[in-house]
Inverse folding.
């Protein structure tokens, strides 16, 4: 009985495809297997637990070479420009400004993380995802996609941090 | 009855076990002393630990070089040299195809025989390793920081490039001697007019001390013998080079018989400093030839091939004191020089004995003009007056000799299948151990230098037979590691090699470990089709050629959807790996590609060509398991009919 139904569906499916023609093939979404919640569904479940990427933790320094960073109240625009250039070469494969991509967008990161944590994540991602509880959770939130160690110097990571300060 | 039987057997077994225990209180059989540690302990490198030595074994007909650790015998890498290698895309990628260009066109294979590590002051310096292509005469230079082939130079006027690639003690020259003599210059002539007309070219290739770049300095045009193996003089004999010869009969057919008629052939001694001087003063003749010089540039990640049309040849009889012949019995094969440079050892392969010439006596004989005639104007030195000694080995078929740092020599015997240890000076045999089976070359790390590391010896065999589980008619050749730190050699371990190893070179791990390159810096990438940011990823059409500027990082291609390709297009995937972390290559394979995949190292750019032949949507994917999301690292190319007007477009995640 079930098998017949399947067969019928398949035939129908084939017919549908054929009838689509060669211009634009129909976007078929006939099945949903544990599909992730859509935007509208998210509103309905407002109580959903806060994602690790949205959590605010300004005290954790993370694990890595950076123990303390002091930020001047004024943004150093030359340093930020240098950081933007590096970001454009080494980071945008995975992190787009203003949009979640492979990894999170950097916008407003310093409202959620300490500067030390951000620099440690850039400089020692392998250690962070093993030893920093939040980084560990972030790895899961972003599909297990590992953050690549791009071999930056501390000065280069500092420049990228300055660039992040310019991103609202 | 049956039950009783079983019980009886059981009792017998227990009894035997007790007997064994009783017989051998040390617990391991075969040990000849309670103090010596077991062979297993000596070769065991615990998980996570590293070997003490690198060994570079020639691959023979594989065309490549393999890298092993000693004493473990573990293979670390196969370095493609003369053969196309789909594992990395070497010889298939657009960047590396020029490496295999020759005057005969693209030659995707060779027979790699003799690796030799660069030296300074006669000691290994670990900068490069040179190796010869035997079939289509070529010399390659391989970087020992990237473990990649960086340069290949073809050798004109040569054939069967066998007495190669050996270097002088400051890497002034890498030497390539021809095994087969040929008409020089090549011309149409009857084969049976070989004698007196064919010539043997011994080629000296200068090596730039900074970059290692090779250039043919001169060719010494010798009589038409077969030049078999060669070694540099060192220490007091620095400035000379020694080549063994056979077929001084100059036979051209049924060589097995006809080239073994003379009781003695020669070791040719070339005073290359004299030749160098002669050429520097304008001596020699510039002759028309055609050969390829292929050079890989690490910054552009690309090779270029240049055809060269001239070479300087030298008639050695025109240079007083440049060339002499040392009579050496029974078709000598190996021609080895001891660490002091005092002794030149000729292994007559059809003999039981090993002949040792004295360099001091040789120079005296030259001064005294103690000659025994001449061959084509080249003086033949008096055999008895240059002889230092004869090793009465008791073995049969000596081939090659290496040395330790304690004044001992080790010679392989092919026919009697053994390594014989003997003492320099007394010429007395100290020890002998069997090999399994029919050993060819042997290698002691640094054994062809002033400073051997006399701890291990590797014997490389021609026959394997029962050493390993059978794998059909073809078996990988076996090698054996011996501990040579004591008076007696101790067989430690057996390991299979790849292809057919001829010679090998080895050095201390400390010489190479710290300078081994980990990544290529993206900001130093000067490949013309590199993109240093994924923002530059794009697809450009130039007639029927389509160039994809693509980047990779764990774990996606930018772009991963490409449309507007048409049947008949030639599609170039220029892939830049944006990783900057050690050991994170990405690969790319395209369905139906008539080439291979390419494996792109961090910071590197490589290009593979794919021809769009059929309408459809065709996938490509990453071949190297790069992250937990490696299986997701894929993309599609849409191929439309040739007359379609689908526009060129590309995207990632849009």
């Amino acid at each position: 009985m079930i098998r017949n139904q399947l067969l019928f569906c398949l035939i129908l499916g084939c017919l549908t495809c054929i009838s689509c023609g060669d211009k634009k093939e129909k976007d078929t979404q006939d099945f949903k297997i544990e599909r992730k919640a859509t935007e509208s569904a998210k509103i309905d479940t407002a109580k959903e637990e806060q994602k690790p990427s949205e959590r605010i933790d300004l005290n954790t320094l993370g694990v890595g070479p950076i123990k303390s960073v002091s930020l001047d109240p004024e943004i150093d625009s030359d340093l930020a420009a240098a950081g933007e250039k590096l970001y454009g070469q080494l980071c945008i494969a995975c992190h787009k400004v203003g949009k979640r991509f492979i990894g999170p967008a950097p916008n407003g990161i310093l409202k959620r993380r300490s500067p030390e944590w951000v620099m440690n994540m850039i400089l020692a991602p392998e250690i962070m995802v093993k030893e920093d509880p939040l980084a560990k959770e972030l790895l899961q939130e972003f599909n297990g996609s590992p953050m690549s160690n791009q071999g930056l110097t501390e000065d280069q990571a500092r420049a990228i941090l300055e660039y992040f300060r310019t991103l609202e | 009855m049956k039950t009783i039987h079983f019980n009886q057997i059981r009792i017998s077994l227990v009894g035997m076990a007790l007997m064994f225990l009783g017989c051998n209180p040390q617990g391991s059989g075969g040990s000849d002393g309670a103090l010596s540690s077991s062979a297993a302990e000596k070769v065991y490198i615990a998980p996570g630990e590293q070997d003490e030595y690198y060994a570079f074994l020639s691959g023979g007909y594989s065309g490549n070089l393999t890298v092993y650790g000693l004493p473990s015998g573990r293979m670390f890498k196969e370095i493609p040299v003369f053969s196309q290698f789909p594992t990395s895309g070497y010889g298939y990628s657009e960047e590396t195809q020029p490496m295999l260009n020759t005057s005969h066109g693209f030659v995707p294979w060779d027979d790699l025989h003799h690796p030799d590590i660069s030296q300074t002051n006669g000691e290994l310096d670990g900068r490069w390793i040179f190796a010869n292509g035997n079939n289509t005469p070529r010399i390659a230079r391989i970087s020992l920081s990237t473990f990649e082939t960086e340069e290949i130079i073809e050798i004109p006027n040569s054939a069967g490039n066998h007495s190669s690639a050996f270097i002088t003690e400051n890497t002034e020259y890498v030497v390539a001697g021809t095994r087969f003599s040929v008409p020089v210059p090549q011309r149409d002539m009857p084969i049976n007019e070989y004698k007196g007309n064919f010539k043997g070219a011994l080629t000296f290739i200068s090596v730039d001390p900074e970059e290692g770049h090779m250039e043919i300095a001169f060719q010494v045009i010798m009589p038409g013998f077969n030049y078999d193996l060669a070694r540099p003089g060192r220490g007091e004999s620095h400035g000379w080079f020694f080549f063994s010869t056979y077929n001084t009969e100059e036979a051209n057919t049924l060589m097995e018989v006809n080239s073994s008629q003379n009781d003695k052939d020669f070791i040719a001694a070339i005073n290359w400093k004299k030749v160098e001087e002669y050429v520097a003063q304008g001596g020699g003749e510039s002759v028309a030839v055609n050969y390829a010089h292929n050079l890989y540039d690490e910054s552009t990640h690309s090779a270029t091939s240049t055809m060269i049309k001239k070479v300087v040849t030298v008639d050695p009889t025109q240079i007083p004191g440049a060339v002499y012949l040392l009579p050496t019995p029974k078709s000598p094969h190996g021609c080895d020089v001891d660490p002091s440079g005092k002794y030149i050892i000729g292994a007559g392969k059809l003999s039981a004995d090993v002949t040792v010439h004295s360099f001091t006596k040789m120079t005296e004989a030259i001064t005294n003009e103690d000659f025994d005639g001449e061959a084509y104007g080249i003086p033949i030195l008096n055999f008895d007056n240059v002889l230092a000694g004869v090793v009465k080995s008791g073995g049969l078929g000596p081939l090659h000799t290496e040395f330790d740092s304690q004044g001992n020599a080790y010679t392989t015997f092919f026919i009697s299948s053994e390594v014989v240890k003997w003492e320099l000076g007394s010429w007395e045999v100290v020890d002998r151990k069997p090999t399994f089976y029919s050993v060819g070359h042997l290698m002691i790390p640094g054994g062809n230098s002033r400073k051997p590391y006399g701890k291990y010896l590797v014997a490389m065999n021609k026959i394997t037979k029962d050493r390993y589980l059978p794998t059909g008619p073809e078996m990988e050749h076996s090698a054996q590691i011996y501990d040579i730190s004591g008076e007696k050699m101790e067989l430690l371990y057996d390991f299979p090699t790849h292809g057919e190893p001829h010679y090998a070179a080895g050095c201390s791990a400390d010489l190479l470990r710290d300078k081994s390159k980990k990544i290529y810096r993206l900001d130093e990438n000067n490949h013309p089709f590199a993109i240093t940011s994924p923002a530059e990823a794009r697809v450009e059409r130039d007639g029927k050629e389509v160039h994809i500027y693509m980047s990779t990082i764990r774990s996606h291609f930018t772009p991963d959807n490409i449309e507007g390709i048409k049947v008949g297009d030639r599609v170039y995937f220029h892939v830049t790996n944006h990783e900057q972390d050690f050991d994170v290559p990405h690969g790319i394979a395209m369905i139906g590609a008539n080439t291979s995949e390419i494996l792109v190292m961090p910071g590197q750019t490589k290009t593979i060509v794919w021809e769009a032949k059929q309408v459809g949507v065709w996938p490509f994917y990453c071949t190297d398991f790069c992250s937990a999301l490696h299986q997701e690292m894929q993309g599609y190319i849409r191929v439309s009919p040739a007359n379609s007007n689908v526009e060129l477009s590309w995207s990632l995640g849009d």
In short: Chain B touches chain A at residues 519, 522-523, 532-535, 551, 553-556, 558, 578-581, 584, 627-629, 653 (CB under 8 Å).
